[in-house]
Each structure stands twice: as structure tokens, then as C-alpha cells.
Amino acid sequence: MLSQKSLRTKFTLQLASASTMLILVFSTMLYHYIKISIYETVVHVLNKEAMNTSSSADIVILYNKELGHIPVKVAVVENIDDIKKPKYTKREDSVGSHLVLEYPKGDKLIVVSTDTSFYDNLIEQILTNIIILNSTMIFLIIFYALFLSRSLLIPVKKLSSRLSKLNETVLDHIDESGVPEEFKPLARGINRLIDRIRVFVGYQKELFIGIAHELKTPLAVMKT
Fold this sequence. Notes:
Blueprint: H1 7-55, E1 62-67, E2 70-78, E3 87-92, E4 97-105, E5 108-115, H2 117-152, H3 154-164, H4 184-223
Antiparallel strand pairs: 1-2, 2-5, 3-4, 4-5
């Protein structure tokens, strides 16, 4: 049984929901890609500095430097927790957030850290911009879906208008050349139905003419 919901409404909802899901999935992937790319740069700098410090013959206990506009703080402490592999942690304090790399070097632990507050704010701004852009795109998609659904229903409205003008005296065929390719089977079916109605109307006229002819003779006799 066909749904009673408007075809235009169904088409608009399906197109808008599918496009919205596609935009959300793409935006989510883009956001995480940007976030990972930004932090990968920071991680690469920390790892490079830790390796340089571990390979140095004279290990400095504490120093600060800047690598590629990224301020880095390096400290060498005792490896109390017996860390075997490099370990990354994100730490929060009153100053801001920091990304810390603990790089084991024998009985020592090279701790390389950098302030990531700037990158956190940058990522938050990117997320806000993506949300605003997605909201605008979803609004435009809904508007486009309404416009497209209206355009697709124009041939149906024209066929309906053409059929509403048909009667027993006006039984002209629908011009199939002016109908979109998808609606041509419907137009052909309507034209075949019009042909059947023509035949029926013709038989009906012949029947009425025959009845009138047969009634004329007895009526004429009775009148005489």
C-alpha cells in the first residue's frame, strides 16, 4: 500500500538526511585529520629533541630551546618508574596544557615537554568554524532539496492538468515529445487509456444512434 505522505516531502527528507550524514562524516574525518596532523608535528619535534639529547655525550640536566617556533623544555631526571619505552602524556595545569614525552636513557629519564595551549585553541577554533560551515551547508541543502523536488514534480503537475481537461468531446493524446524520458511510459499508458475511452465513446454513440433509429419507425406508425 502506497504511503500517504507527500512524495515531495519524502524526497526532500531523504535527500537532506543523506546529504547531512555525508557532510557530518566528512567533517568529522577532516577535523580528526587536522587535529592529528597538528599534534604529530609537535610529537615529532619532541621525539627529535629527546633523541638528540640522548645521543649527546654531555647531557644537560635542564634547558629550554625553541624548535620550529615550538618552545621546548628538556629535563633529565632519575628513571624511578623504570620506564622502558617512550611515553607521551597530556597534562593540564593552571598555566595551560602540556604535551610531555618521557624518553628512557639507561637509568635516566629525558623529559621533553611543550606548551600546547595555542594548538588546543587553534583546534577549538577549527571545530567552531566547521560547525558553522556545516550548519550553513545543511540549510542550503534543505533549500536545494525543496527546489529540486519542486522541479521534479513539474511534469507530474502538467500531466495532471492535462488530464483534468479531458472530457467526452476532448480526447486528444498527450504529446510524448515534451515529456521527460522517465515519464514517457506514463504518458504512453495514458494515451492507450485515451484510445480505449475513444472506442468506448464511439460504441456508446453508435448504440444511441441505433436505438434512436429503431424507435423512429414505431413512433411514426403510431403517429400516423
